[in-house]
Write a structure and sequence with these properties.
This protein is an alpha/beta fold and about 220 residues long. The chain has a single domain, classed as Phosphatidylinositol Transfer Protein Sec14p (3-Layer(aba) Sandwich). Helices cover about 50% and strands about 15% of the residues. It starts with 15 loop residues before the first helix and ends with a helix.
Length: about 220
Amino acid sequence: MTKQANPKLGGSGIDTGFAQMQDNPDDIRRQQDLLKPKEVREKQEEERVYNNYLARAKEEDLKDLHDMNFIYPSGSDSMGRPVAVIIAQNFPATHKNMDRVLLYIIKVMDPIVQHDYNIIYFHTNITDNNKPAFDWLRAIYAIFNRKYKKNMKRLFVVHPTVWVRLAIWFASPFVKKKFWKKMKYVYKVRLAWLRVVLFVCCVVLYCIVRSLFKF
């Protein structure tokens, strides 16, 4: 009696269905990911998206945005925590490619947010050309991964207006309650802020001189 060939077996006697399964590790990985808790999957996706932006930020030439001086590191506080300064009146909200603006922010901030840090946001002399769209603000908040939110210890908003209060209110559904404890409005710049203000003035003066003499 002739034994019939098993259609699942190849000439070598190997189960081809099993071989095909082994040849698709991506499918196996996806199935394994689906078994992970939702929070873990969301965190992994968040890291994947952010790392893609970070890789682009490191590769792209962003010198034109650097020259605008709208965001930069500015020393440390009394506890040794780095301070990032944001100058709203220099922010290029009407830039033709806001994706590049985001890349530059990530390029500046990524080394800072690895540990505890503070932000000083100067809202002084802002115009409509410096006001980003709320949709853009919401998008970048989603892209910034957890270390941005967790490691930020203080956010000082200097000279807030109705617009900045509205922007922060708009973000309320997307931020945790801990965020509000970290934020402080500063209506008057006192002596404690003098060092930072002088530094900002020096930076602005340097940029003016450099632009005049082209060096």
